[in-house]
Amino acid sequence: MISSKPKVGTSVEARQQWHFLDPQLLDWIKEADNVQRFLTQFLGLRKAIEPEACSIAARYASIEHRKALSISFQNMKRAAACHDYAAWTINDHQFHKTIFLATGNPFYIPFANILESLFKTFIDESSTGGRFCLEEHEAIYDAIMTGDAFKARTSSRLLLNDHNQKLALVTPS
């Protein structure tokens, strides 16, 4: 955000130069900017990346990743049954983070870190009427556990569809 050069001074970089995948910057932006607009743009990123991550995870997830995904999903089911929003949020985040890690692709790992920074804010702002979207998560879970890459990708797209979100459509600036 800021550049500093000897004998030139310090200046604020143009927004296009900022590193938007930096968790510290994301924490600052979600507090400073229009959070609805910011999260809508984040949803756009998720739609572009997460379905493919699910597909790759279905093909390459290790036994350890599948166990972690299973634990997260079982905890999500319990949280949904008890209407425990806090437990749902923690385990939903872990579920999606595990998917990115399960790709085995180091370029997907930063997205697990982005989720760390944004997930609770995203769920708070985007969840429709407190709905847990358990069926959509179960379809992703089943597809990854059975190694069905096509179904994992399709199920992720269904989860991220606009009808599951209450974020307003925002055009890019």
TrEMBL record:
<dbReference type="GO" id="GO:0003677">
    <property type="term" value="F:DNA binding"/>
</dbReference>
<feature type="domain" description="GntR C-terminal">
    <location>
        <begin position="41"/>
        <end position="162"/>
    </location>
</feature>
<protein>
    <submittedName>
        <fullName>Transcriptional regulator GntR family</fullName>
    </submittedName>
</protein>
<keyword id="KW-0238">DNA-binding</keyword>
<keyword id="KW-0804">Transcription</keyword>
<dbReference type="Pfam" id="PF07729">
    <property type="entry name" value="FCD"/>
</dbReference>
<dbReference type="InterPro" id="IPR011711">
    <property type="entry name" value="GntR_C"/>
</dbReference>
<dbReference type="InterPro" id="IPR008920">
    <property type="entry name" value="TF_FadR/GntR_C"/>
</dbReference>
<keyword id="KW-0805">Transcription regulation</keyword>
